[in-house]
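Input record (one chain):
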Amino acid sequence: MNMKHDFPTAEGNTVYVRRVEMDSLPAEVRQQAPELQALYAVHGIDGERLALVADRGLAFMLARQNELNPVSVH
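The corresponding structure, as predicted from the sequence alone:
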């Protein structure tokens, strides 16, 4: 969960933030955060998952720190 990732600087800077239930994630990810029921994913405009973080606020902050505009999706 604490891996460095270079965010793309491609055309458009919108990213999408959505809640991801733990049971939909691989076991290795679930083992890193056993106390959580969900994580928040940051996705690029092409749908690629760029990051997983512990809470929604952190997902938005991460996006903004990388000069991206986060949008919440369900």
